[in-house]
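As promised in the previous annual report, we have extended the structural survey to additional targets. Below is the entry for Putative transmembrane protein.
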Amino acid sequence: MEKNFTELLSEELKLREVEALDNQRHADMALLEAKKMASQYQKEADKCNSGMETCEEAREKAEDALVEQRRLTATWELRARQRGWKEGLSKSHSQS
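The corresponding structure token record, generated without further manual editing, is:
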């Protein structure tokens, strides 16, 4: 009777060990999947940040170009005014 009880306990321990190993394997797989997903999200975030930097650089270049264009426009307008151009005259000439 004691031998049967020992065998039953031994079998119970083996079953629990198998179950624990199976649970550990599932946990390891879930951790690996989570790491893969985190890596993918990080890649996407890096791409997004890179795109934002590119857009910011383009915005800065456009802003610099606009400032330069305004400077050139002011220079040409000043030259035109020095030669007698008036804004109202150009409107009346374009309407006729």
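Helices lie at 2-82, 87-95. The two ends are 121 Å apart (CA to CA). These points will be discussed at the next consortium meeting with the crystallography subgroup.
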